[in-house]
Amino acid sequence: MLAIAVHGGAGTLPPAELTPDRQRAFRDGLESALRAGFAILERGGSSLDAVVAAVQVLEDDPLFNAGRGSVLAANGEHELDASIMDGRDLRAGSVTGVRHVRNPVLLARLVMDRSPHVMLAGNGAEEFAREEGLEPVPNDYFTTERRRLELERVLRGEKKAGGEAVLGTVGAVALDAGGNLAAATSTGGMTGKKWGRIGDSPIIGAGTYAANDCCAVSATGHGEYFIRAAVAHEIASLVRYRGMDVKQAADDVVMRQLVKLGGSGGVIAVGRDGTIAMPFNSPGMLRGALDSRGRIETGTQK
């Protein structure tokens, strides 16, 4: 059984912004990511390589809040986060607050594979990227006119940072032919964020988790709540210790535990049997799924 799922963020898109052309563009971007990852799985490649490939496609697509097209912090700069986890042995890598790395998911993979650490931040992460041969890009490489205008509206107080209309994180989960699970997540964070704010995306167990004995999870939504609930690990624990299937576990955490806390968002998750879950409690979540049974779908709203 081969399976992959991706997300492009969860939240609210005003009807005026969710035009048919915009919906089609989102769906096309999600499908491109799915197919990039699934092609690796079909060739006998690893789930780890598949999630990196899928997330990289989304980081390079300016429609999504990761890599090029990321939102701007209050200081007018981009501060990017990413993480990855290998379900075979619980290895993980994470970076936060990077400003010159074109594909943060690649750097997270390098932290996992080529350093003794799990998380690197800011200047240290940038130095490690240079040592590993990742060519830096100027910070304005990530800027789009749409994101610049969003920041201006936030700074004028026209809408609250964190309640931004444009959806906010990308991620992928996958199961390969060897039964190995993997997850990866990448984000530009929150429009107008201050003080070096870090959400759940780079935090193992909150925004990303994978273990072969249960499932792989990538989360998207209001990160502070996902950190408090340790969402990704909580879903895995319900599968591992309570014997829930991945859909039951994901629904319990997203639709009950998060709602009780007041948190909004969703997850994508895949179980060790290839079952894919994509619950969300927000008005919309950009998501897609593809598996070897013939399932292929993308969605934006409920």
Structure write-up:
This protein is α+β, with helices and mostly antiparallel strands and 302 residues long. It has a single domain (3-301), classed as Glutamine Phosphoribosylpyrophosphate, subunit 1, domain 1 (4-Layer Sandwich), CATH 3.60.20. The chain contains 8 helices and 12 strands. Strands 4-3-2-6-5-1-11-12 form an 8-stranded mixed β-sheet. It has a 4-stranded antiparallel β-sheet with strand order 7-8-9-10. Strand 9 (265-271) and strand 10 (276-277) form a beta hairpin. Helix 1 (20-42) packs antiparallel against helix 2 (47-60), helix 2 (47-60) packs antiparallel against helix 3 (104-114) and helix 7 (231-242) packs across helix 8 (246-261). The protein starts with a strand and ends with a strand. The model is unreliable at 161-166 (pLDDT under 50).
